[in-house]
Amino acid sequence: VPRATVTIDDTSEPECGLTFFVNDTLTGDPLLTVPIWTNPTVELGDPVESLCYEVHGEDGSYFNLISDECTSVNAYYQEAVTPSPNIDLNVVTQIGVMARGETACWNIQVDLDGCNTTINGGLSLGTDFDGISVKRYATSSRVRISVPNCGDTMLVMWVFCRAGQVEDPVTMDYFNIRFIRFVVMRGLNLNEQSHGLIGQFWNVPVTVSSYTGLFGGAERSDDYVITVDHPQSDPRSFVGLKYSVTWEFEKRVCYYVGNTQAGELSEVSDPNPNDSVIEGDYTDYKVDSLFATDFKFSHFDGNRC
Question: How much is the average pLDDT of 91-101?
């Protein structure tokens, strides 16, 4: 299927050292960038390298991004609406955060339309409550969400409602699209046991070594073996191509890994390491609704609610 190229209209300031869940970079599919720690002398929480991968997902489906004991974040995937039959592109149009506050659990929803934000179903322009902070900046189409995650350091997330253009790979015509960009600004209090399409890589030891095998039948000099050692899973190893920029062209080393669903690469053959980038299959992260917390790798503790 032909793939699309997306350019973005984004005048926000660059934000370094972040986790990005974005739909606004080169391939047009939901693209993810997560920080990894490969140097034991670097303090945990000071990412210097990243993994870049994509999860194309499915139109009309909900996927879990972060699942921790006291915080769960889901994304709603929809096919981007364009008049072209050549564009195969999903974008995120809703973000749902279920968060444990000081006394209760709260549902925070952000919609692409106007970045409208609701808390337990009620419209909110910005408020602090129960140890949680939600601030909507209507003029810049963004929402800042800060939750305690049952810890002393706040988990800070941003939701950006963006516009961009997608290029038809056949006709080279451009069409306007809109999408949500999700950013974890401060994730130091995500536990090692956290999971989800993003959460499983946070604060987890990762090792990187040179790859000497063949990639697509040829030898290359910038391929590496990445091994992820999640405390609740068997170690996974896969091949990545090293670049000096992320999907967003941020100046940071990023290892591009996986196929369009963050799975195994067809270019790498046995006996070389070729595990899935994410644990299991991308469908294992599907949830039933925007605030559902149950899926195969869920770590959310519903008893706290």
Answer: 95
